[in-house]
Amino acid sequence: MRTLTEEKSRRLALPALLRAHPNLLAALLFVVIVLVAAWPILSNPRTVIVGDDIDVYINPWADWWTLKALRDPALSLWRSEYMFYPTGADLTFHSFSHLNTAVSLLLRPLLGPLPAYNVTILANYVLIALSMFQLARYWTGSWTAGFLAAIVFAFNSHALYQSCHPVLLSIWVLPWTTLYLVRATTPSVMLSATKHLNRAQRFFGPLQKDGVRNALIA
Fold first, then answer.
1. Are strands 79-80 and 89-90 parallel, antiparallel or unpaired?
2. What is the pTM of this model?
3. Which of 54, 93, 123, 163 is the most buried (most CB within 10 A)?
């Protein structure tokens, strides 16, 4: 039988872990959720592609074309003769997602073209959830509120549908940008920034005056 002390320690273990590493624990939970939800894809990584829309098939091609254009100086990323031959296609306004493509190409030697693409897309959901978790937790001070907000933001129907549009999927930048702006405009940060600006002005002010004086003399 467990003693009262052991039972109390067990109950306090999870809250202590949440306080010590809240972001790490949340990230691990989001990884598990994505792995479970995407298991049919991950169990067939070379024959299944993430995304339930005809648009999805252009995305691995965009990865391939980017790599080909980078390797061949004679080619332009922004025009391809491999589409709509013989007239070719202007790709100036094509919905490239260069960050996702870069990650996919980095993973390609390890996983292969299609698995690398799938893992890159799935990683976006972990980042979406983690970014909203950090923003909501900052605003509310609650790990639970942050976790629930992350689940709603990352796994709603719109976000799931955009798995076939990498350029529209990388919305994790929005919560993190908001969090940065909110934290950067807090009174304490603004006061610290003002102090640094005043110090810089005191340091560079005499130098600027000397520079103007020398310019006038010259």
1. antiparallel
2. 0.79
3. 163
